[in-house]
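Board notes (copied after class):
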Amino acid sequence: MDNYWLPYLVIMAHFVSGSIWLMMINKKAGPEEAREQWKKYLVYLFLFNLLWFSITWSESLFPILGYVILAGCTVEWWKAVGRSGSKFWPTLVFILIMAGFWRFLYMEKADLLFTYFVVVLFDGA
């Protein structure tokens, strides 16, 4: 666990800078829009911490959370495809993406954290 504090603190600093930017942006937003942006920010912060600590503290918890995410994605995909005409190509693409995600759930801890670190850092930027 000790090896993972520095990258965690880097990402937390990134979240702090994001909150400063969000405060500046919300000065021009209405109260309802600002509230929605803060909700998104806090949910993202919560999910990041939940996933990070599930990777670093419990090897069995992260795949379980991954399956919950996969199930949620499947429900959303099912709703979206139900409204579209063609189902073959969206289904094929969805299966390929989910296969890659499933593989992601069982990567080595160091590789998994590095990938997660890079994705969170660049997604947040």
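Comment from the instructor: The CA atoms of residues 81 and 87 lie 6 Å apart. The chain has five helices and no strands.
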